Amino acid sequence: MDIWKIAAPALLTYFLIVVRLGSLFLVTPFFSSTNYPAKIKIFLALVMAFLVFPGVRPLTTLPDHPLNYAVLLGKELLIGVVIGYSCQIVFQAIQMAGKFIGYQMMFQMVNVLDPESNIQVSLIGQIEFLVAILIFLVINGHYWLLKAMIDSFTLVPLGAVKMNAGAMLREFDKMFGTLFIIAFQVSAPAAGVLFLTRFTMGLMARVMPQMNVFIVGMPLYVGVGLLTTALSLGMSYVIFEKYFANMINEVYTLLRLMA
Q1: For residue 179, what are the domain limits?
Q2: What is the pLDDT of residues 136-185, one digit of tens each?
Q3: Half-sphere exposure of 160 (CA within 13 A, CB side)
Q4: Cα separation, 49 vs 109, whole angstroms
Q5: What is the pTM of this model?
Q6: Residue 116 exposure: Cα atoms within 13 Å on the Cβ side
Q7: What is the enclosing helix (H) or strand (E) of 112?
């Protein structure tokens, strides 16, 4: 019994750390990919919690009922879910931009299976998404995200989660607003060129009614769209790097609102 009293605070603290870090693998881009087996994710969460545990302030008072401890677990899980969804907004905006371009290229029915979410997505959207993931890894975005999760134990100590609902809703409202701005900025070069191409084809159809615009236009839209998208990927590094830096700043802002 005495051993349990000594070990209980450490064990309960450790499991709270596991839940907070493990929630990173639920919805966060790259980490939540279904390509990784669940056993690997659980193992990584346990190892990360073991490494972080010595620097985390343990629980000062133990829950007097299992339901109270379940509430603490739910709060820790909520931290990771909130961070994960805030990161998803940027990646979904980039994928949405590819979808806009795909529509202009007449790729409405051309979908591929997204291995991240196991759903059908636009082909161009998937290309933009994979480029975003590569740039995210190149700039060590995954390290910054892990650092934010570790810093969360300082900003939001275990068992001290306080949801400022009004401020958090306003922050998410601002982030959802930027989703469409990001999608427009990423898709603007290719979508703009494709719009001019369609406009030109419309003028040609009026000048030469005997020309079959549908037959001529379809391969032209595909070629122009792919060429413009390939050329615009050259400046994607700078643009995406700015988006990911803002994403990490938003993560820290949300953590402060939960403190």
Answers
A1: 2-257
A2: 888 888 888 888 888 888 888 877 777 777 777 888 888 888 888 888 88
A3: 17
A4: 44
A5: 0.81
A6: 19
A7: strand 111-114
Does the pLDDT value for residue 1 go beyond 60?
Answer: no
CB < 8 Å & 24+ apart, contacts of 59-63: 59/9, 59/12, 59/13, 59/16, 59/158, 59/159, 62/8, 62/9, 62/12, 63/12
DSSP designation for 19: H
Check pLDDT > 80 for residue 214.
Answer: no
Number of domains in the chain: 1
Nearest by Cα to 130 from 175, 103, 94: 94
Q: Which amino acid is at 98?
A: G
Contact 57, 155 (CB under 8 A): no
Instruction: State the pLDDT at residue 108.
Output: 67
**In whole angstroms, what is the distance from residue 29 CA to residue 95 CA?**
12
Rounded to 5°, the CA angle 252-33-156 comes to 25
**d(C-alpha 76, C-alpha 63), whole Å:** 15
CA distance 127 to 143: 23
Kindly report, residue by residue over 66-85, the tens digit of the pLDDT.
787 788 888 888 888 888 88
Distance of CA 180 to the CA centre of its chain: 15
Contact call for residues 156 and 259 (beta carbons, < 8 A): yes
Q: Which residues are within 8 A (CB) of 193 and not within 5 positions of it... i.e. 6 or more apart?
A: 224, 228
